[in-house]
């Protein structure tokens, strides 16, 4: 028996072999690839192996076929293990609107003894390549660094045991053949500990992805694993990024996140009414649309040693009342946003004094804080009520949900309740935009992304570092999700000088924000900022909805991101390397070969007309100088 799931442009085919003990991958690629013998089929014997070791199995083999059901977009396949009484249902779902296949597994204990599961992947997927793996690795302030390796044999594994996806690896992997070309991708919808591996075997490479941890499934209970998303592109890892972007747009709400000002870098914990209003007034003049007060607004919060858990505005910081303060910000024409870290608590807080048992009993503090056990019903209710109170007491349009403390104790109940609260925010407060943050980008996964509007990829806003972080981020995630701020120079992490235009163009590559102390900006700086904010507003629909092509990388000396809609193309370009010596020495302009254009159409930018073929093969010319290290080119199709 064979079934084919059809996505927008691909076919994903699985087969039930005659022995009916497991499901096998048959083929996965552009429509039509399913017509012919499977590229994964084992044509040889299985000396000193079991048949399952050599087969491209779709999940743990062994069991008895217990039935299945399929349409073009859904497949269910059930197996039962008579020995343990475990019934495993493999589930597949897709949609013609994108090229992603979603998979998860339901495990039911039909026996009468507890089942202890140490490993329970959401999916296995086998592709017929000698693998070149691309993944996103890093640390705090250096998230989403693109890394590649060839795996000639053995197993490669990335993951997190920290209770959150973590800074070290994004839950995302791309697999290609060693010479590049076709690309297959895996991305996990799980906001807790996780694991993705890739193992070379007789059929190619098998990647397995899922939640990490041990669970006990009691008789009669069903465990539903997180969803794994699988993607394919004929255009390599660059094309794969567009498949992910398209998919993320289908799960996003269709509205642009506003240009924001966030006061964290300007004031840190020294939040007080007067200073915030000064910043808000200047931000409004620059054309900013939303003012976000970050950490430091609530009682007891003078630094990071105290206050988390006590979600009431500090009257000492807002002597005129918090409501009146919010009204004053809004009177400037700005929406109002607020930072919260609902899952954490400082031992120095009223909440901890009243409920010390609500925190996981972890002996160590990180950033002087502990994590609340959100899996508990009372903690869940507390967090939900605290957020509900803030959102109903004040006209808050934007909530930045932070999480700065990894904890291996965080379990699936906690993660489920975190996702439930995000669902509740969306249902009960649909007009509130939610930003996901975890000390930068430590919780960027498809489950979070389906429930927030934007994410904060990193605390590092230094221009060159940020460009590299964003380059990696855009491999996996869409630009409408990528929050980015222009901050002061020299920055905290990356102090290398770059023009303010460079900083703006970097932050414009996703959702533009400003995080500098704009009180100290000169009139010229403010004027420049006003121009960039206005330009961004004109082109943000292209940045948020256009097809993305990553042209070069920050390591190349110059690079660009091309955003393409039918009638308008925006190219954001940056120079990171040496100058050519022009005009003292002979030389020529840097050229960016654009993609995805109509070769025969004309495109106009800055009064110059380019033929599509010229842009594609000769490239868009930009001449860099010491003062001109970034550019925004808007091409309109004639
Ligand atoms: C970590 C976040 O990543 C920052 O943007 C900021 O919100 C701080 N936490 C505040 O404590």
Explain how this protein is built.
It contains 13 helices and 37 strands. The model has no long low-confidence stretch (mean pLDDT 96). It has 638 residues and is α+β, with helices and mostly antiparallel strands. It is globular and about 75 Å long. It has three domains: 187 residues, alpha-galactosidase from lactobacil brevis (Beta-galactosidase, Chain A, domain 5, Distorted Sandwich), CATH 2.70.98.60; 284 residues, TIM Barrel (Alpha-Beta Barrel); 80 residues, Sandwich (Immunoglobulin-like), CATH 2.60.40. Strands 4, 5, 6, 7, 10, 11, 13, 14, 18 and 19 form a ten-stranded antiparallel β-sheet that branches. Strands 27-26-25-22-21-20-29-28 form an eight-stranded parallel β-sheet. It has a six-stranded antiparallel β-sheet with strand order 30-31-32-37-34-35. (2R,3S,4R,5S)-2-(hydroxymethyl)piperidine-3,4,5-triol binds next to loops.
Number of domains: 3
Cofactors, ions and other ligands in the entry: (2R,3S,4R,5S)-2-(hydroxymethyl)piperidine-3,4,5-triol
In the CATH hierarchy, the architecture of the largest domain is Alpha-Beta Barrel
**According to CATH, what is the class of the largest domain?**
Alpha Beta
Low-confidence residue ranges: none
Helix content: 10-25%
Label the overall shape.
Answer: globular
Name the structural class. Answer: alpha+beta
The biggest beta sheet reads: 10 strands, antiparallel
How many separate helices? 13
Strand composition percent: 25-35%
Task: Give me the CATH fold name of the largest domain.
Answer: TIM Barrel
CATH superfamily of the largest domain: Aldolase class I
């Amino acid at each position: 028996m064979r079934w084919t799931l059809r996505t927008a442009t691909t076919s994903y085919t699985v087969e039930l072999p005659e022995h009916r003990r497991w499901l096998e991958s048959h083929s996965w690629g552009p429509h039509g690839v399913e017509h012919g013998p499977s590229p994964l089929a084992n044509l040889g014997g299985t000396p000193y192996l079991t048949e399952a070791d050599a087969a491209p199995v779709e999940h743990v083999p062994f069991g008895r076929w217990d039935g299945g059901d399929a349409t073009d977009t859904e497949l269910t396949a059930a197996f039962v293990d008579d020995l343990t009484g475990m019934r495993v249902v493999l589930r597949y779902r897709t949609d013609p609107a994108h090229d992603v296949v979603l998979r998860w597994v339901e495990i039911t204990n039909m026996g009468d003894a507890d089942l202890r599961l140490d490993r329970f992947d959401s999916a296995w997927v086998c592709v017929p390549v000698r693998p070149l793996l691309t993944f996103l690795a890093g640390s705090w302030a250096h998230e989403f660094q693109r890394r590649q390796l060839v795996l000639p044999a053995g197993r490669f594994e990335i993951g997190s045991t920290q209770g959150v996806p973590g800074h070290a690896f994004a839950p995302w992997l791309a697999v290609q053949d060693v010479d590049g070309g076709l690309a297959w991708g895996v991305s996990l919808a799980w906001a807790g500990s996780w694991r993705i591996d890739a193992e070379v075997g007789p059929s190619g490479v098998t990647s397995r992805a899922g939640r990490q941890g041990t669970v006990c499934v009691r008789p009669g209970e069903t465990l539903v694993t997180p969803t794994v998303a699988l993607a394919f592109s004929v255009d390599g890892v660059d094309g794969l990024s567009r498949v992910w972007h398209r998919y993320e747009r289908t799960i996003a709400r269709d509205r642009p996140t506003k240009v924001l000002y966030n006061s964290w870098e300007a004031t840190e914990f020294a939040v007080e009414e007067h200073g915030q209003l000064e910043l808000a007034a200047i931000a409004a003049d620059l054309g900013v649309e939303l003012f976000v007060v970050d950490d430091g607004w609530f009682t007891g919060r003078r630094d990071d040693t105290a206050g988390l858990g006590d979600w009431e505005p500090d009257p000492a910081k807002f002597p005129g009342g918090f409501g009146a303060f919010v009204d004053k910000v809004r009177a400037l024409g700005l929406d109002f946003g607020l930072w919260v870290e609902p899952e954490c608590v400082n031992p120095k807080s009223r909440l901890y004094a009243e409920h010390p048992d609500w925190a996981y009993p972890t002996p160590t503090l990180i950033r002087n804080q502990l994590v609340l056990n959100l899996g508990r019903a009372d903690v869940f209710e507390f967090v939900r009520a605290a957020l509900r109170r803030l959102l109903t007491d004040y006209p808050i349009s934007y909530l930045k949900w932070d999480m700065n403390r990894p904890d291996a104790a965080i379990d699936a109940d906690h993660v489920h309740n975190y996702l439930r609260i995000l669902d509740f925010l969306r249902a009960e407060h649909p007009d509130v935009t939610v930003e996901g943050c975890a000390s930068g980008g430590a919780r960027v996964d498809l489950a979070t992304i389906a429930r927030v509007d934007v994410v904060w990829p990193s605390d590092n806003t230094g221009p060159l570092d940020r460009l590299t972080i964003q380059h990696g981020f855009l491999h996996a995630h869409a630009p409408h999700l990528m929050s980015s701020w222009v901050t002061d120079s020299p920055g905290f992490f990356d102090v290398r000088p770059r023009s303010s235009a460079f900083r703006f163009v970097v932050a414009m590559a996703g959702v533009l924000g400003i995080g500098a102390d704009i009180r100290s900006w000169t009139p010229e700086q403010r004027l420049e900022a006003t121009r960039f904010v206005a330009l961004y507003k004109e082109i943000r629909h292209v940045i948020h909805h256009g097809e993305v092509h990553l042209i070069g990388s920050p390591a190349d000396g110059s690079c660009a991101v091309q955003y393409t809609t039918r009638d308008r193309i925006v190219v954001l370009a940056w120079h990171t390397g040496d100058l050519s010596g022009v005009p003292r020495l002979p030389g020529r302009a840097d050229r960016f070969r654009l993609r995805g254009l109509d070769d025969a159409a004309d495109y106009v930018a800055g009064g110059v007309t380019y033929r599509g073929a010229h842009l594609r093969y000769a490239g868009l010319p930009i001449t860099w100088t010491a003062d001109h290290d970034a550019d925004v080119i808007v091409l309109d199709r004639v």
